Amino acid sequence: MLFVFCTIIVIFILTFYIWHQMESIRIGYEIGTLEEKVLTLQREVDELETEKSSLLSLDRVEKIAKEELNLVEPKKEQLVYDEFIP
Amino acid sequence: MSTVFQNRARIRIIILGFFFMIWLVGLTIRLIQLQVFEHPRLKTEVLEQNQNRNTVHPKRGTIYDCMGNILARSLPIQSVFFSPFKGEPSNLQLEKIKKLKRILDLSENELQSIHKRIERNSSFIWLKRKISPEQEDKVKKLYLSGIYFLEETKRFYPHGRLAAHILGRVNIDDVGASGIEYKYNSVLEGKKGEHLILRDAKKREYRFETLKEPEAGKDLILTIDETVQYYAEKELEKAMRKTEASWGTVVISQPATGEILAMANYPTCDLNNPPSMPLSLDRNKAIHHNFEPGSTFKIVTAAAAVEARKVNLTDSFDCSKGFIRVAGKTIRDHELFGVLSFPEIIIHSSNVGTIQFGQSIGDEIFFETIKAFGFGKKTGIDLPAEEKGIFRPLDNWTQISAASLSIGYEISVTTIQLLQAINAVANKGFIISPSVVKKILDPAEESREKPYRRKRIISERTATLLTSILQNAVQRGTGIAARINGYRVAGKTGTAQKFDPSIGGYSSTVHTSSFAGFVPADNPAFSMIVVIDEAKGPYTGGEVAAPLFREIATLVLRYLRIPKQQEHLNTIIAERRLRQVER
Hints:
The complex is a heterodimer.
Chain A: H1 2-55, H2 58-68
Chain B: H1 2-37, H2 39-50, E1 51-56, E2 63-64, E3 70-82, H3 90-104, H4 108-119, E4 125-131, H5 133-141, E5 147-156, H6 164-167, H7 179-183, H8 185-189, E6 193-199, E7 205-212, E8 219-222, H9 226-243, E9 247-254, E10 259-266, H10 279-282, H11 285-288, H12 298-307, E11 316-318, E12 323-326, E13 329-332, E14 339-341, H13 342-347, H14 351-361, H15 363-372, E15 390-391, H16 401-406, E16 411-412, H17 415-426, E17 430-432, E18 437-441, E19 448-449, E20 454-456, H18 460-476, E21 490-500, E22 505-519, E23 526-533, H19 541-559, H20 570-582
Parallel strand pairs in B: 2-8
Antiparallel strand pairs in B: 1-6, 2-3, 3-4, 3-5, 6-7, 8-18, 9-10, 9-23, 11-14, 12-13, 15-16, 17-20, 18-19, 21-22, 22-23
Helix pairs in contact in B: 3-4, 9-19, 12-14, 12-15, 12-18, 18-20
């Protein structure tokens, strides 16, 4: 009876150990995949921020405003200051 | 019968149990042997087969302007290299490379260099570094063995040539080579790290260990304002095209803090496509070029005379001859004046008058005042290779030195030194070192804002008086082209003849024109210096530099939302203040 009990305990421990190892590896894969995803997304954010900055560069905006939208510089009398700085 | 059968069954069960137990014990022993006794050896073997130790290059810090706009950022990009397998014939290796020639745009020189490395049996050969994503796709589609990619980073400048001389450039290994990139390289580059990556038989990553955490480079926030910088560069370029000058520079700063808002240079270039010989990019004229300032230096002469109480505002000087002889040399005025008061001498920029009161200062006091204004030494701006100008020690002065220095000759200065000097006047007598980096963003600690130190060099009375004189110089003197309706502008023009070594004297045809000023005069929002070298056609500071000051200042005043002052009162206020100080 004791022998059977010990055998069951040993089998249980070994099974648990194997399961633990398998789970660790599975979680390792998952962490690796997620870390890679975070890195990719961070890079994407960086790239998009840089692209946005490039698209909003003043010479480009001025060129589009003047050449495509036919906007002009405001005349002196058209300038209204929203607050007075003494 | 049943007993015999039961006995046999029991024996069989015992035998089976015995074998099962042996199998179980054997399995346990083997597992203990593998997992405990042979664990270190087996682990080492597995690691040798499946582990990769990767050096992790930290991300280089980003550079922002004072409004948080990105000026420089590193982004990942692929580089392609060739690693032939052992024993691969060199002609086959070369054939592979030739297939990539067009895609990678390899020059003959590059091909020869690769060929040499193949002949030397190199196991790692760079084919092309930092290729475009399109090139990467094309190379991958060829499925060539031995061709691999390595991820690196490339510096991108989203605004192209904006602030090119301040930002500087990095080399192919992303190490700063000039400008801020060089000066703050140790802050921007960070520290390398090391990763251990374990892969299974299918090369999937199943364990990732950080052996050494890479330290990302710290981000920098500059004092530069993208919009002000853009205005300065745009207007400078227009002026340069109009005057056909050899080079020009504009620097705009906040006098109270010494922070540089813009530093424009022309000629310039796109940082994303720098010239093959980027020397022009590495030379920032505002800090690397020494020149004789001419009349803009009269501000210092006037400050020394007033501070030493060698001249009163009511003092008059006879300038009617139009020339003055000093130690056998004749120095002339740019036009004929009569008798001029001390302020009128500066307002109309009379050389004859300035020399007269300049000589009364005394060499020692004059020398000390010039030194106090920061000439002859570096301003300490946080940009690399700043020049300190050329200013002779007092012992080497000749009989004509005081006279020459009075009108801005016999001394070479940098643009940034002149700006620092005009800032001292704008600051009511305090001198402050200029700076271009506002903050270093450090995630580990609180962001460090760079402190600024100021030192009084002239009294408030002298500074106020000079401001009034400079305001008049713009209202009705040589700087009239810098006048902006609705704003009180203080400033001084300069037109210096350039020394021509071929004739051993000063040329009458090539000049350096300048204008240094600040606005609004009583509470300056910004100061600005404009230097234009060798302008064709009109060449005086009043004709070339002062109008450029006005154009840029008008835009910057609007951008900074500085409201107009009472327009019709400007002249009256300027003259009244002068009279008040006179009393």
